[in-house]
Amino acid sequence: MKLQDLDIIVTAPPHPGWGGRYWILVKLTTACGITGWGECYASSVGPEAMKGVIADVFQRYFEGENPENIERMFRRTYSSGFTQRPDLTVMGAFSGLEIACWDILGKHRDRPVWALLGGMMNERVRAYTYLYPLPQHNLNDFWTSAEQAGEAAADCVARGYTAVKFDPAGPYTMRGGHQPALSDIAQSVRFCKAIREAVGERADLLFGTHGQFTTAGAIRLGQALEPYNPLWFEEPVPPDNLLEYAEVARAVRIPVATGERLTTRSEFATVLRSGGAKILQPALGRAGGLWEGRKLAALAESFNAEMAPHLYAGPVEWAANIQLAVAIPNLLIAETIETPFHEKLIKRSICVENGFVSAPQAPGLGIEVDEALARAHPYTGRDLHLQMQDAPCNYAEGNSFQGGAPASEP
Predict the structure, then answer these.
(1) Domains in the chain, please, with CATH?
(2) Does residue 210 have an active-site annotation?
């Protein structure tokens, strides 16, 4: 087998747009006609520029190569341009191409990818979801309404979920970490209280932040949330100083989780060695792909740490997450996003049932991509997949931040 052709599709999820403004899907085809799908989770340059990066990485390190040679292609890409260090954009391109190679290998051997990563460890994968507005909720009010969050959490539990995630803690800005406003701490406490009352002991609370606090600010917020026993305190400080996670972990009695903005095990290793986190959240379309994810899971085992694959993207990366989750012993939980577009794009070939995902049995990633649907929704905007806010935290009037990709118009 030799890799021959590359196709790149940038598709935009329609209203409400959960999963970001666009998803970058890659399709690889071998000289013998086997196709594989991957997804690149990289947003530090625009999608047109990213298409050029993906094409460059493919032409330099994948084209004409046997898709079995994952390690060789990784080392060549990781070393590109005399680097041998994590590069968010280049490794994002590599990750999507690498995932597509595993899809090809599974189809060639008529086996699911998990069977090639060590076999089945978990027959079912526990799933969690963000809290999203219910039909009766207002899209603008929902993000600051603890009452509506409790209603959404109760709905998730009624559908079988045993964990829900939410992020009411204020803006993440290009200015770096900040001290949380007292109003943001109070709002975060209200959310935890309302959701805990709504779900009782039936579901874990996953408190999401996005690196928006200073170390001291994260500690103030985290300590205020301790009475509600969240399962994790996610990415409490910016990822550009990985050693600060350890100070938060020592001061807050909630497990620290992180990883969606980290790439390759070299960055995750710093967090593990310092004791900064015991729950790792790699985004496989950014972190280095499935093989790097499998290595990271093994590394985490040595530190008694668990894996919780991250998802704020499309269903191809999700399918890769599920394949990895089935194969590893230290799985905690995997993120999912349920929208009609996610489901239609892979023709419901993988789905959440009563809060869990059964191990896929179909070859490769176990999905069938609706290529025509993906092409029918091209991205025409100028914004990035996710974006930070320019304005600082509002200490006088409070904050109403809807995330890096607010709901799109119907």
Answers:
(1) 115-363 (3.20.20.120)
(2) yes
